[in-house]
Amino acid sequence: MASITDQPNCYVEAIHTNCPGIEIHSARLETHDGEFNDILIVNDDLVFRFPRYADAIPAFLREIQLLPKLKDYLPLPIPAPLYFSGIVSEPGKVFMGYPLIHGRPLYREVMNGIADKEVLQELARQLAGFLSALHGLTPAMLDLEISTPNMPDWVRTFYAEVQEHLFPFMRSDACYALSEHFKNYFNHPVLQTYHPALIHGDFGGSNILIDGNRISGILDFSSMEYNDPALDIASVSTYGEPFFSYFCQFYALSEPLRDRACFYRGIFALEEALFGWKKGDKKAFESGMEQYV
Q: Hey, is 211 helix, strand or coil?
């Protein structure tokens, strides 16, 4: 594969090959946006997403088919693909292109910099409205075939991989605390019981855009599945308790759903670390392991 310095030229070539009508006057690679995709900004008004890994391409292709079906049901802007490479399986050659949605990622530090309570309440209302609308959809409404993971089985497999691959790098007290966290999940059937919903699946700050004092768009639906809505709620809870309390004013949150979200929030860093271990991504591994070593 080409080096990162050569990659923009490779991506531009792929766009020219598949979309010869586009005149490209400028192209810049956004190297920091996400673990799974490279983002090329073309002419300052188009976004081209290229998945980095071959095993992510099937979900990426499904997302291209999914986005037009979702847009009429959701209260916030989402990507509207205009360009598509076609069905290919090689990273660097498969892409989607859509008009740029203006805004910056709503990272935790951005949220922490907002002091106006009315602005925070409005952001919470927008995010709660978006997730309420998304979680209220069904695969049948979208004429969609979508995966339905069994979360207790996934957690068992995930925990085994964490023990095998991550525990050897961790402090002993961190291993003990995580063991207790998982034991609590396995010992309480209420944490394993849920009504599946259509979820975003990666509802973190890099995929939530803010422009001024409003949410301007939601990105990257490649992780969407029919699963526990508490996974999305857990992502919102990482903004901290003050903001989460505003969110709970607008999203109907049961106690069991809140408890499951608390469990999932406790394993997010492990997911990043395990991803880094599997992909040889040192940055992701070290970021995910930071609190445990």
A: strand
Beta strands in 35-194 (DSSP E): 37-42, 46-51, 83-84, 96-99, 104-105
Q: How far is Cα 7 from Cα 117, in angstroms, rounded to an integer?
A: 43
For the chain, what is the radius of gyration of the CA atoms? 20
Rounded-to-integer distance, Cα 16 and Cα 177, Å:
52
What order do you get walking across the sheet with 27-30 strand by strand? 27-30, 37-42, 46-51, 96-99, 83-84
For the chain, what is the mean pLDDT?
Answer: 93
* pLDDT tens column, 175-194: 999 999 999 999 999 999 99
**pLDDT at residue 33 tops 60:** no
CATH superfamily of 105-292: Aminoglycoside phosphotransferase (APH), C-terminal lobe (3.90.1200.10)
- Residue 139 near residue 198 (C-beta atoms within 8 A): yes
Task: Give the helix/strand (H/E) hosting 177.
Answer: helix 172-187
User: How many residues are given for the chain?
Assistant: 293
Q: What is the pLDDT of residues 66-109, one digit of tens each?
A: 999 999 999 999 999 999 998 778 888 899 999 999 999 999 99
Quick check: 67 and 221 in contact, CB under 8 A? yes
Question: Distance between CA 102 and CA 133 in Å, rounded?
Answer: 22
Task: Give kind and range of the element (H or E) at residue 237.
Answer: helix 230-237
**Quick one: DSSP state of residue 251?**
S
CATH class belonging to 7-100: alpha beta
CA distance 259 to 234: 9
Q: Which two tokens mark 31? A: 């190297």
- Domain ranges in the chain are 7-100, 105-292
Report the predicted TM-score, pTM, of the whole model to 2 decimal places: 0.91
